[in-house]
Amino acid sequence: MSQEIAHSERQRDEDVLIQVRDLKTYYGSEQLIGGRPVKAVDGVNFEISRGETLGLVGESGCGKTTLGRTLLQLETPTAGEIRFDGTDITTLRGYELKEWRRNAQMVFQDPDSSLNQRMTVGEIVREPLDVYEWKTPQQRRQRVRELLDTVGLKREHYYRYPHQFSGGQRQRVGIARTLTLEPEFIVLDEPVSALDVSVQAEVINLLERLQDEFGLTYLFIAHDLSVVRHISDRVAVMYLGNIMEIGPTEELFTDPANPYTRSLLSAIPAPDPTSQKERVHLRGTPPNPRYPPSGCPFRTRCPVRIRPEEYEQLDEEIWDSLNRLEEILEERRRSRGAVDRFREKVGLDTRYATAAEIREELFEPLAVPDQVESVLDDVSAEIEAGDEMAAIEVLQAEFRTVCGSEKPSHHTVSDSGRTSYCHRHRDEHRDPKTAFEERT
Amino acid sequence: MSIQNTQTGTEETTTIQQKVLENKRPAAIWAVGMLVLVGLEFGRITGWVVTAGGVAALIFDLFVSLPAIIGSNVGGVFGFAGDFVATGVRLVTTVAVALLLLAIPAGTVRRLLPVSPAKELRPEMPVNIRLLVDRAIVTLGLFVAALLIVLTPVGGAVDSIIAAIQSLFDSAASVQTLTSRETIPNQGYESPSGSGWEGTFMGLSPALAWALRVTVIYLYATLLVFWIWKGYTTYRQHYREADWTPLDDSIDRFRGHKWGLFGLAVVFAFLVLAIWAPVMGPTTIEANHYEPYSNEFQYLGDSGDVQSTFHGTANIQSRSNGDSNVGPMSYDDYGRWAPFGTNADGKDLFTFLAFGARTSLVIGLVTIGLSGMFALILALVSSYYKGIIDLVAVMGSDTVQSIPALLLILMLMVTLREFEHPIVGIYDGGILLAFILAFTYWPGLWRSIRGPTLQVSESEWIDAAKSYGQKPSVIMRKHMAPYVLAYMLIYASLILGTIIITTAALSFLGIGIGAPTPEWGRMIESGRGYISTQSWHISTIPGIMIVFVVIGFNALGDAIRDAIDIEADISGESATGGAA
Ligand code: SF4
Question: How far is the CA of A404 from the centre of ligand 1 (A)?
């Protein structure tokens, strides 16, 4: 496996533009009163070749926008390095950083918010040139008009204000602004998701044309998978700050390796309605990134989570309920404050449900096997005693597997160097694809 | 990616000059009109320029005197060697202040230079360092030039040139204008032959002559404002590149705002009264109020002959104190016209109130100017950097707000007056009051604009600007301030009303502006005992004026708020609907 990675790296080495190593961006850790940081980006590794488009997908809140902003040094990374053309840009300061910024620009999601409405389109597009005192003002104006032309606007739009344009045209203004400094790398943060469907295609075509014309490298962030599939050469799938799977687009879309990718892809309606592909539902919402699950980040929602041998045949719904139970207990443990403890001590009602109530809600109509039932009894006892930690431990002792106890590693899953972040690629477990087929 | 486009050349970038040259007529008409208007009041406008120059010189002097103050303070610490140390410190700080002052114009001079000195020296120097070095070189150059001027005979020549210019301006400022008292005089005496009035404009009665002058002043001011507006519309119609700007909509909305137009009219009336105060009253403030025993005037005596007496003497006979009374719209026994009657000292109330308006305006503007400027800069900086700076600002404003304002004003006014601090001399404590009010008002202002400023600071266009390396100061000025300024404008006009009331109230209580500087609140106070007598006008008229002015400013603020439609502005209401 490691050989394969080394091989693919050597292949791309000479034309790699961006190389990201163990990048972490945490929020809120600099707070005055100590608190747990939000781990928006939690150790990602990838690279982007020159002229390539890397798609970055994931549900909202998964950290994809933060990753994009960190690549542009709009956020300060907590750890790790970002090599741009060989230089670690996280160490750049002051003048060097300013000079580097010419190389990397960003197109924002919402043109309403990314264009200052008090400035004319000409002033907006011209501003980067003013910052670097490029040539003479006359030549700057000239260049801006040419850029407006390039992105499909009219030269005489120079003196119009953003308000006078449609959403699609405004996004073109935003694109023109990113082109002014002739960057090599552009982060496209959901560049079409705020636009009407009818104009999305036009803007996508424009972006593709510009890439060909100027040899641009794109990081295309989106949650619309069909757009990503259309424009990207490779795709990275992100979940709770981790890259779950990364590899060539077609391969990843037709034969996803990672359980999360698989769930995400089946959550969108297949373009071909006759397709018999099974639908897996992505249950619930992602956990709070301030308290990511131990082990694999996806384990609370994973349909093919590795189970202990003896519970292999346990009903799917019971598993869901067990997961929910653990989540509830975790939440309770975190939110339990001093006041609650005091109220419990003196025998007052707390705002929490009793163990019986929880069990009733989660397990009532289900046929729970005796073995599970007895574990639940133990859990209930601990809840009644007010010790959630112990209750969680009881649960975990019985049902926890490698998915909850160990972080997976990035397994290479195909010749193209595609990697997937899941324990199921280890030899002792069935691979995700087989597991999916079995469970559904 | 280089886009060559030589065939289009540069012809599409027309400048405003080119546009004017292409279509001269509207600009020429407007310019001629403006010249006539300015010409009519040339002396007065020059006077304003001289005053503005005086204020600027005062501030400049303050900076320049810093080294001397620092020098003597430091020198005092060092005992016997003090003189030597003081001279050294003074020299160093003088040079430092001079360099700092010269660094301000240096930026502009650098931009005008055809070559970059640093680039000539070391072509490979990085851009931002180059700009700094350029500026330093230009500053040094200016410093050397200034030294040469000061230390050589050229200095004397320059001095005399400046003095000549100054006296030129001064004499220009004394030229008679359309609204001068001399153009339409209203002071005179009834001719003994009974055939009308002597000394007044075309023999009109003083009342009519005065009314005529006031009307001319207001007509002129209205015309001036209209012509400036006309200039804007001419520009908008013929010369502006953009066929629409966001401001157009706001202006259109304001024009349809009846309540706001009323407010504007009241504020306009107040401003004209304050600005033209010296020629508003039927008599001058010096003769009637400040030095009544140095100024004589003529009147028709009982015996039928023309006599002359001091204003002071006549004032004693013209008191409005319940027993005797010179009410509004009447003459006193000396044939002096008193549109608002006289006060308890027999002085003309209208003249007093016109200058009172001036006092209120100056205090209001100084207060708003200082506290608004500080609040704005603080809001921009604290919401751009957030974190610890924001926290410090919050604590600072809380601290200031926790000080009881009235107590602070009382304490400072009384102690500084006691020590005869020079600042108390300006406007009899007026400027000091403005400073204290500015100090107590900034936290409120800052809090009001903090929310919107934070909101703007979250806009993505700021991230965009950061991503291409725009300087924080420029981001704040260009991408944040315009949005916050709208709020500032609203709060400024609201608070201006409050300041006028506060000043009046404090003066009423006797801790605001002292005598003799005219102030509305003090006049209300002095007439308060006669409210129920025939001399009711002394308190009532200034009271009504305050009410009107405050309502006017509030209406103006309301209208600006409605016109600017700020909420839509920041959040971008026309969003095409976006997924988060
Ligand atoms: S490691 Fe376990 S929980 Fe995570 S994706 Fe793989 S099977 Fe699912």
Answer: 9
Give the residue, out of A301, A302, A399, A430, with the most ligand 1 atoms within 8 A of its beta carbon, to mutate for a pocket test. Answer: A302
Residues A27/A38, Cβ–Cβ less than 8 Å = yes
Contact flag A150-B129 (C-beta cutoff 8 Å)? no
A99 domain-assigned = yes
Is B64 in contact with B97 (CB distance < 8 Å)? yes
Q: Are B576 and A142 a contacting pair at CB < 8 A?
A: no
In degrees and rounded to multiples of 5, residue A430 shows phi and psi of -75, 145
Among the partner residues B5, B128, B471, nearest to A146 by beta-carbon distance: B5
Alpha-carbon distance values, B141 to A371, B109, B162, B310 (Å): 91, 11, 22, 60
SS (H, E, C) B332-360: CCCCCEECCCECCCCCEHHHHHHHHHHHH
Residues of A with Cβ-Cβ distance to B580 under 8 angstroms: 60
Residue A135 backbone zone (phi > 0: left; psi -120 to 50: alpha; other: beta): left
CB B346 within 8 A of CB B319: yes
Angle between helices A167-179 and A121-131 (to 10 degrees): 20
Give the domain CATH number at A139. Answer: 3.40.50.300
Residues on chain B touching A156 (C-beta within 8 angstroms): 12
Identify from B116, B457, B461 which residue to disrupt to test chain A contact, counting A C-beta atoms within 10 A and taking the largest count: B461
CATH value of B350-571 in 1.10.3720.10, 2.60.40.1930, 1.20.120.160, 2.60.40.1180: 1.10.3720.10
Report the atom number in ligand 1 closest to the C-alpha of A260.
5
pTM across the whole model: 0.83
Nearest CA, atom 8, ligand 1: A305
Query: What residue numbers bound the domain in which A137 lies?
Result: 15-232
Look at chain A and report how many structural domains it folds into. Answer: 2
Cα nearest neighbour of A156 on chain B: B12
Provide ipTM, 2 decimals: 0.83
Q: Is the shortest distance between the CB of A240 and ligand 1 below 6 Å?
A: no
Q: Please give the residue of chain B at the shortest CA–CA distance from A211.
A: B1
> Which chain A residue is nearest to residue B245, measuring alpha carbons?
A161
SS3 call for A258: coil
Query: CA-based diameter of chain B, in Å?
Result: 99
Domain stops at, among A189, A204, A232? A232
Helices (H) and strands (E) in chain A, counts: 18, 12
- How far apart are alpha carbons B416 and B410 in whole angstroms? 10
Task: Measure A300 CA to ligand 1 centroid, in angstroms.
Answer: 9
Q: Is residue A304 part of a domain?
A: no
Q: Which residues contact A162 (CB under 8 A, 6 or more apart)?
A: A111, A112, A115, A116, A117, A121, A124, A170, A173
A106 shares contact with chain B (CB less than 8 Å): yes
- Are B1 and A182 in contact (CB < 8 Å)? yes
Per-residue model confidence as pLDDT tens for chain A (440 residues): 444 444 444 445 558 999 999 999 998 755 555 567 888 999 999 999 999 999 999 988 889 999 999 999 999 999 999 999 989 999 988 888 988 999 999 999 998 889 998 899 999 999 999 998 888 888 999 999 999 999 999 988 999 999 899 999 999 999 999 999 999 999 999 999 889 888 999 999 999 999 999 999 999 999 888 899 999 999 999 999 999 999 999 999 999 999 999 988 886 655 554 544 445 567 777 888 888 888 999 988 888 889 888 888 888 888 888 888 888 888 888 777 666 666 666 666 666 677 788 888 888 878 888 888 888 888 888 888 878 888 888 888 888 889 988 999 999 999 998 999 999 999 888 888 888 887 76
- pLDDT tens across B399-413, in order? 999 999 889 988 888
What gap in Å lies between CA A115 and CA B576, rounded to an integer? 14
Task: State both tokens at B12.
Answer: 């599409």
